[in-house]
């Protein structure tokens, strides 16, 4: 398994989104110990010519021509870069990775390769060199076939027209599917692709995958091929850790006729392993919808850790929003604006129930220091650490502090939306040179970051002042 193994991915096709953007979102999750993240721009001159993988130190030569791209790497690179997410200057996005699952039959036929590539390497190896999502799949596939991998991963590539979701199987095999424009996907830490047709024009896969499945007798189903059944897992961890997350988001986003719908035969069963991969939303989905889902903790059910269920119910299933969220990104590629402002790297730092998303432009020379320079050790002058402080305090009394955060996030959503619209209109009105465009958008990001920094510090003050009245160490009689 990866060093990081607990993300949640949500994808929204352009006809399923509110403004016809493609939306690629993922929580990057780690451990209970805080794992600070940075937001950076990687200039082509900073990209290495030979890449040394984190695990095994394999040397991989890289193409000479690289594109500029954004990324959200670890502040502490002792365990690898983990670029995680970004949009390059061709307005192609990549999110990597969703750690997934496999089974012993697959690994017996195609074992992992210890000295190979993994999640820590993938964004750096692929995103600077692709100009379409399909190119991303093919470049990643070629690297997997040549160098192998030591873990199972799901990853996403998108532009303004397409989203491709890709999964790896064993040491060298892979498959990818183009997400239909009117669909959305929620993908937890399991192998997620279900029905798969090798003859479809909307899929890609390692050349020998059909023979690999047939030769090793991996398909347990009669009739159609289901990759989740064939190459994935179905164990107690999926029941407690993975399936409920898909169930909760689909419960709110999909059109399900209760008490029974043939596509959702187990709609009231959070542990159901067979909820569909490709889903159709009951309404068009927004950035705010995705952020709500990726911050959720089974609100409205007995399984909410902050709710009124029994202690056993509240601890039964792994939530989506939790203390291990390191950052959440929504990579939006907009079709209706000039190319320079089409890519928006929405970003929230630390625990999702206590952060807010900022719509950062990606045609920029640099990122705001309070996101870029996050230190490894605690410093609340940076958004990651400031937000994590809110989360630690807020977790003590969610009823009290959750209301304050809700008002903060609702207000900041409106403020940042208005700022973005103002920048968009000013950009359209002006004829910027490429250099002037970069300068304008870099400054726009700085202004939005400072607005969020000030509001978040104010919220921390509200937490402290409000919480002081609720401390256990107090006495009603005073002189």
Keywords:
single chain; 479 residues; alpha+beta; six-stranded antiparallel β-sheet; 12 helices; 32% helix
How would you sum up this structure in a few lines?
With 479 residues, the protein is of the alpha+beta class.
What does the largest sheet look like?
6 strands, antiparallel
Radius of gyration: 22 Å
Strand order of the largest sheet: 12-1-2-14-15-16
What is the terminal-to-terminal distance? 60 Å
Succession of helices and strands = EEEEEEEEHHHEEEEEHHHHHEEEHHHH
Helical content, roughly? 25-40%
Mean pLDDT: 95
Stretches with pLDDT under 50, minimum 5 residues: none
Form type: globular
Query: What structural class is derived from the secondary structure elements?
Result: alpha+beta
β-strand amount: 15-25%
Strand tally is: 16
Q: How many helices?
A: 12
């Amino acid at each position: 398994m990866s060093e990081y193994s607990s993300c949640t991915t949500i994808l929204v096709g352009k006809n399923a989104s509110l403004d016809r953007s493609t939306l690629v979102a993922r929580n990057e999750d780690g451990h209970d110990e805080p794992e600070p993240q940075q937001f950076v721009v990687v200039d082509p001159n900073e990209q290495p010519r030979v890449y040394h993988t984190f695990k095994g130190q394999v040397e991989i030569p890289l193409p000479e021509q690289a594109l500029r791209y954004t990324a959200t790497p670890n502040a502490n690179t002792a365990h690898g870069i983990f670029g995680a997410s970004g949009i390059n200057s061709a307005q192609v996005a990549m999110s990597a990775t969703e750690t997934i699952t496999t089974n012993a039959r697959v690994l017996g036929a195609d074992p992992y390769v210890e000295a190979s590539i993994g999640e820590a390497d993938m964004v750096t190896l692929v995103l600077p060199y692709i100009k379409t999502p399909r190119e991303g799949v093919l470049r990643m596939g070629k690297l997997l076939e040549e160098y192998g991998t030591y873990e199972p991963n799901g990853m996403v590539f998108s532009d303004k027209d397409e989203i491709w979701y890709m999964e790896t199987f064993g040491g060298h095999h892979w498959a990818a599917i183009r997400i239909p424009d009117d669909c959305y996907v929620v993908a937890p830490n399991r192998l997620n692709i279900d029905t798969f047709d090798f003859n479809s024009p909307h899929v890609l896969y390692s050349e020998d995958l059909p023979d690999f499945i047939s030769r090793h007798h991996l398909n347990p189903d009669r009739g159609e091929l289901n990759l989740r059944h064939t190459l994935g897992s179905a164990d107690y961890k999926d029941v407690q850790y993975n399936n409920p997350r898909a169930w909760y988001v689909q419960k709110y986003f999909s059109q399900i006729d209760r008490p029974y719908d043939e596509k959702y035969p187990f709609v009231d069963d959070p542990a159901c392993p067979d909820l569909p991969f490709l889903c159709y939303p009951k309404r068009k989905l927004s950035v705010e919808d995705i952020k709500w889902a990726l911050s959720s903790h089974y609100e409205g059910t007995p399984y909410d850790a902050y709710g009124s269920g029994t202690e056993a119910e509240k601890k039964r299933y792994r939530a989506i929003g939790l203390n291990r969220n390191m950052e959440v990104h929504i990579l939006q590629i907009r079709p209706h604006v000039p190319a320079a402002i089409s890519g928006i790297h929405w970003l929230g730092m630390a625990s999702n129930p206590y952060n807010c998303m900022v719509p950062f432009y990606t045609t920029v020379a640099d990122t705001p220091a309070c996101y870029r320079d996050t230190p490894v050790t605690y410093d609340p002058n940076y958004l990651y650490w400031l937000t994590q402080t809110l989360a630690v305090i807020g977790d003590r009394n969610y009823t009290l502090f959750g209301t304050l955060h809700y008002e903060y996030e609702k207000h900041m959503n409106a403020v940042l939306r208005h700022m973005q619209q103002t920048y968009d209109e000013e950009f359209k009105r002006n004829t910027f040179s490429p250099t002037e465009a970069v300068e304008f958008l870099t400054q726009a990001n700085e202004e939005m970051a400072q607005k969020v920094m000030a509001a978040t510090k104010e919220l921390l003050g509200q937490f402290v002042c409000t919480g002081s009245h609720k401390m256990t160490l107090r006495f009603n009689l005073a002189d």
